[in-house]
Amino acid sequence: MIVSNRLPVDRVIDDDGTATWRPSPGGLVAALEPVMRAEDGIWIGWAGVADEDVEPFEADGISIHPVRLSEQELQEYYEGFSNDTLWPLYHDVIAPPSFHREWWESYVKVNQRFADAAAAVSAKGAVVWVHDYQLQLVPAMLRAVRPDLVIGFFNHIPFPPYGIYSQLPWRRQIIDGLLGADVIGFQRVADAGNFSRAVRRLKGYETRGPIIEVPIDSDDPEAGSHRHVTMNRHGGLVRTVLARQFPISIDAEQYQTMARRPEIQERARQIREELGNPQTIMLGVDRLDYTKGIGHRLKAFGELLAEGTLSAEDVTLVQVASPSRERVETYKQLRDEIELTVGRINGDYSTLGHTAIAYLHHGYPREEMVALYLAADVMLVTALRDGMNLVAKEYVATRVDDDGVLVLSEFAGASDELRQALLINPHDIEGLKETILQAIAMPRRERVRRMRALRKRVLTNDVAKWSASFLDALTRSAHGDHPLQNP
Ligand code: GDG
User: Fold this and answer.
1) Which of 72, 239, 300, 308 has the fewest Cβ atoms nearer than 10 Å?
2) Helix (H) or strand (E) holding 229
3) Residue 144 to residue 225: CA distance in whole angstroms
4) pLDDT digit string (tens) for 73-84?
């Protein structure tokens, strides 16, 4: 069973007004769909429409169980606590997090609803995989009523250092919530380390490498039913929880196959032409989010144009900024700032034939994204903090020609694996400018050498491998075995 905020299907209204369901295009669905189908899987989540009860239904062999959210819950639990408290807090307080007690209450209530829904429909001993920061209380809520379940949790975003995490007024409750799981997965080694530190500081529990020892009250009537119960070195009964990194990936084969399609390659050529055949196309693809460092990227490019080191005749930056969280105030402000900057740079440096920045506030079909990746000589990923950043991996998987240069922020989880990218600190604008120039001037031999190494990494560590290794850790855990070694 999967529990996630959003279901893997989107509701579409046909021309005649009838509602149907279409699989949502995300990589998570692609990765989990085969397993879910083979195992009679159940998916629990919100259907994307407020104040509506949707009956459970079957989609491609997966049983879909929608959870209802009211408009007010959407504002308080989702836009509020998830996206305006946890999101900025977990991304190094790049934007100030808002702390509101009503939002927290709504978060607890909605998490309880997801947990109740999961408890009601899961078979005895079922494996339940809970996803992401919106649902951190679900593991413990579920364990409280269903100690027979094997519970996994995966955090898609970073887990912050203790000095930041400790600002959260409900810091202990979240830790307790997560520790209800048997296995807790993070993107990076550093995230798992931050979590273990928070557990030690806030709860005083002992940790041994990736294993956390959670004391069990021996008067607890359920004490005997917990898995992994052992005696610790002080003679107390403990449950063990595994907390470690499982870096997520993409369906690399799918990107590669699309990149080989003649019409997509033709579209890539067309894109270059439409941009006036500049010598260099640089590309940024991000949800319009303050964590992605879009402003830092624009500043570096703007300065290079201002100094005359680059000219809009030679270099175009294509920035896809797909609309995101548009009802949250910080995102409205961000959009204004970015669009002001783009307007200024274009006003100052574009010519009639060459626009400095092609700024696109749209979402595009995946085919178009692949064509853009193919057309881009330099890919700019300048996140200030990012759990993984799939865009970096998609660019690499797409480059079947072994060409293209990836400029990658060391603050994105992907930088742990993609070491042959040009790694940058986006706060260091001079360093970023130098790296952009280095990327533009890089000789083909070096581009190919780096891209081959990057491709090898992404093609071997794809999303199927990611889900298999997480599920393997969970299944082993069901048999009382917490592997200490890397899976
Ligand atoms: C969170 C974490 C972590 C974007 N615009 C369009 C479009 N996209 C696609 C990209 C990519 C996905 O959206 C974005 O994934 P990222 O990983 O880059 O970033 P988040 O959305 O912040 O995701 C992140 C991820 O979860 C997974 O664990 O890596 O760190 O923040 O696939 O291609 N896709 C299409 N049109 C667009 O306009 N089709």
Assistant:
1) 308
2) strand 229-231
3) 11
4) 999 999 999 999
**Rounded mean pLDDT, 212-241:** 79
Cross-strand bridge partners of residue 316: 281
Between the CA of 307 and the centroid of ligand 1 the distance, in Å, is 33
Name beta bridge partners: 280.
Answer: 315
- In this structure, which long-range contacts are made by residues 107-110, counting pairs with CB atoms below 8 Å and at least 24 apart in sequence? 107/76, 107/77, 107/81, 107/82, 107/137, 108/137, 108/173, 109/73, 109/77, 110/69, 110/73, 110/77
Indicate whether 225 pLDDT > 80: no
Average pLDDT over residues 480-487: 56
Query: In whole angstroms, how large is the CA radius of gyration of the chain?
Result: 23
pTM for this prediction: 0.95
Rounded Cα–Cα distance for residues 51 and 72 (Å) = 9
State whether the beta carbon of 399 lies less than 6 angstroms from ligand 1.
no
Distance 325 CA to ligand 1 centre (A): 14
The residue whose CA is least distant from atom 9 of ligand 1 is: 391
User: Measured between alpha carbons, how far is 117 from 310 in angstroms, rounded to an integer?
Assistant: 57
484: confidence class by pLDDT, cuts 50, 70, 90: low
Residue 15 tokens read as 């021309």
Q: Angle CA(82)–CA(27)–CA(185) in degrees, nearest 5?
A: 55
CA dist., res. 170 & res. 189, Å (int):
24
Which two tokens mark 20?
């149907």
- Calculate how far, in angstroms, residue 415's C-alpha sits from the geometric centre of ligand 1: 16
Query: Are 213 and 240 a contacting pair, CB within 8 Å?
Result: yes
Q: What is the pLDDT of residue 435?
A: 98
